[in-house]
Amino acid sequence: MNIKIEESWKSVLASEFEKPYFSDLIQYVKSEYEAHTCYPPGNQLFSAFDYTPFNDVKVVILGQDPYHGPKQANGLCFSVADGIAIPPSLQNMFKEVKSDLGISPPNSGNLERWAHEGVLLLNATLTVRAHQAGSHQKKGWEQFTDAVISKLSEERKGIVFLLWGGYAKKKGAKIDTSKHLVLTSGHPSPLSANRGYWFGNKHFSKANEYLKKNHKQVINW
């Protein structure tokens, strides 16, 4: 399995890579990829970091697990590869972008364009066994991604954190709100969105207003 990570993140997270839990985690992930079909492909495991270097992060969106169906996961939370049907949660995200900013939904669910603009699309767990949601949880990924959030909170300022649903809210509980904007709402999944906990949160325009106020380029959602 080809594991590599973008240079700025490699530097920022160097101490994390030296910890025993991370070594155990990587051994576990390697053995899983050798013995089972797992997602995303090994060379896309750290795509969220590769597309959005540490100092380029303007917005963080927190997901939970990669998609576990064939050819869906591409290392970015909520995103799917080109040519793959757009999942329901992402459809609802695009609907909110349309009602909030008037931007029509794209034909593809590939969010690489957001990542290139400074949106860190971070799943709490970076790998999963095919057709087994949550199968790689509690193996060490959560500790690693907690460290990522802590580094951003401590060493950067003026980032927008979008925390959707109970899991993301808990994971983002320690973000320094005196230095960053934290926006919370229900999850965009149909179960939550159709109960009124997602639509109308206007997170995309609020994020851009905050970036503009802090003299940063807005995101072309």
Descriptive account of the structure:
With 221 residues, the chain is α/β, with parallel strands linked by helices. Helix content is 39%, strand content 11%. The protein has 10 helices and 6 strands. The protein has helices at 7-12, 14-17, 20-35, 47-51, 88-101, 112-116, 141-155, 166-171, 190-193, 203-213; strands spanning 38-39, 59-63, 119-123, 128-129, 160-164, 181-185. The strands form 2 sheets. Strands 3-2-5-6 form a 4-stranded parallel β-sheet. The two termini are 33 Å apart.
Descriptors:
11% strand, two-stranded antiparallel ribbon, globular, 221 residues, 10 helices, 4-stranded parallel β-sheet, 6 strands, 39% helix, alpha/beta, single chain
Task: Tell me the strand percentage band.
Answer: 5-15%
- Overall mean pLDDT: 96
Shape, principal axes of CA atoms: globular
Q: What is the end-to-end distance? A: 33 Å
* Sheet having the most strands: 4 strands, parallel
Strand elements, count: 6
- By DSSP (H or I, 4+ residues per run), the number of helices equals 10
Q: What would you call the structural class?
A: alpha/beta
What is the helical fraction, as a range of percent?
25-40%
Q: Which segments are poorly predicted (pLDDT under 50) over 5 or more consecutive residues? A: none
What string gives the helices and strands in order?
A: HHHEHEHHEEHEHEHH
Radius of gyration: 17 Å
- Give me the side-by-side strand order of the main sheet: 3-2-5-6
Helix-strand layout with pairing:
Layout lengths: L6 H6 L1 H4 L2 H16 L2 E2 L7 H5 L7 E5 L24 H14 L10 H5 L2 E5 L4 E2 L11 H15 L4 E5 L1 H6 L9 E5 L4 H4 L9 H11 L8
Parallel strand pairs: 2-3, 2-5, 5-6
Antiparallel strand pairs: 1-4
